[in-house]
């Protein structure tokens, strides 16, 4: 084995994603366990033996040793892997166009990037998503995988970097500081688009229930006390409306995410890049993604500022909080079924207790609540990380990326499971709702224009103490006729469908 720059046997183990490396006796996955043939790779710190079968190299290996934190590799975020490939693809095309990268190399890199976008080689993106270095390890993992796969495309062996180099060729005209923020923003755009699609389906499901329940009168509530009547359809339509507002807010964030700093390289001055590169790579990124992009007008600012991530994270939090409130309402409305409100029935998804036979819990709204709690916490993390940036770079973008990409994935899954496993199957307990409306003193509010507030308040008190119906009391006291009461207390008037 080649020189490992003083690393102990324990330090030479690789602690990364448990799905991609073998665990040794000490519980830490071992770089060479069952590796078979190896190849020697070197960097400025020395040399390491790398399993010949893998596409990553020495920089990735060192990152696996250094960051045994999350046990979650960047491959767990396919959108990020695809976004990295698209950025590298656009860079190769721009460099080929400008004549700073050999056409054969550029074409090989381009082809490998297409393979990654199609789903190949994702298991080679093994570094932990939480890492020091402002994303350098992620960028190097990407460079090495693409370089070694491109070498094979050209008919050479992995590690033959004299033929095609991870940094000199794949990373040409780039640095982590413009590749990584561009890639994570692009990945987030992919995630937002997917979330909006699921969110709209959920909104449509609530709206459909609004139509289905349009005829079902119920008692409205404020501060958990009986209020005036409404329809169950109005309640569910209200859920749909508030969700649609969040779809608009999420859509509004996307154009801001498409401002990029490619070509800024290290700190925004464009060092090592052709002056024409920024515009060329932006144009090629648009072509390979189908998404319009704009080069930031101030590349120094764009390289250091993380404000857009706070904007997206805050918008996600708003959406999560509102969705969680709706789930709270679903749990409350379905509570019981005997001793609670029991106004709606949620689909029975699983047995609810290991000790109480027949108990069924609102497990789908509950899991969505927990997703919302996580999104709220992730927003706090993003806020702290954005604030902690210093001078020309924010070193904490990896935790920002992890927090937002996880929130996007979890919210998308939450919207899907809430729709499919809950909302689509909700039914109304119409008999219970009708009985509640008939005995509710809240309907007296509709009579105040005809009998006055003081008389209405007295009737409400009598109804509460005697359990008599409001309609009977009004007619019995000669305040209104049976026909007048029936007209004023009709479901259409009580729900506001027609003027009182």
Describe the structure in your own words.
This protein is mostly helical and 500 residues long. It folds into three domains: 151 residues, Fumarase C, Chain B, domain 1; 226 residues, Fumarase/aspartase (Central domain) (Fumarase C, Chain A, domain 2); 55 residues, Orthogonal Bundle (Ribonucleotide Reductase Protein R1, domain 1). 55% of the residues lie in helices and 7% in strands. It has 18 helices and ten strands. The chain has a two-stranded antiparallel ribbon. The chain has a two-stranded antiparallel sheet with strand order 3-4. Strands 5-6 form a two-stranded antiparallel sheet. A hairpin with a 2-residue loop joins strand 5 and strand 6. Helix 6 runs parallel beside helix 12. The radius of gyration is 31 Å and the shape is elongated. The termini are far apart. GO terms for molecular function: aspartate ammonia-lyase activity. This is Aspartate ammonia-lyase. It comes from Protaetiibacter larvae. Pfam families: FumaraseC_C, Lyase_1. InterPro entries: Aspartate_Ammonia-Lyase, Fumarase/histidase_N, Fumarase_C_C, Fumarate_lyase_CS, Fumarate_lyase_fam, Fumarate_lyase_N, L-Aspartase-like.
- Cα-based radius of gyration, to the nearest Å: 31 Å
Low-confidence stretches: 1-29
Count of all domains = 3
Structural class: mainly alpha
Instruction: Quote the beta fraction.
Output: 5-15%
Per CATH, what is the topology of the largest domain? Fumarase C, Chain A, domain 2
Order of helices and strands: EEEEHHHHHHEEHEHEHHEHHEHHHHHH
How many helices? 18
**Form type:** elongated
Strand numbers in spatial order across the main sheet = 1-2
- The overall average pLDDT, rounded, is 87
* N-C termini distance: 89 Å
Major beta sheet summary = 2 strands, antiparallel
Percent helix: 40-55%
CATH architecture of the largest domain, by name, is Up-down Bundle
Instruction: Give a count of the beta strands, DSSP E runs of length 2 or more.
Output: 10
The level-1 CATH class of the largest domain: Mainly Alpha
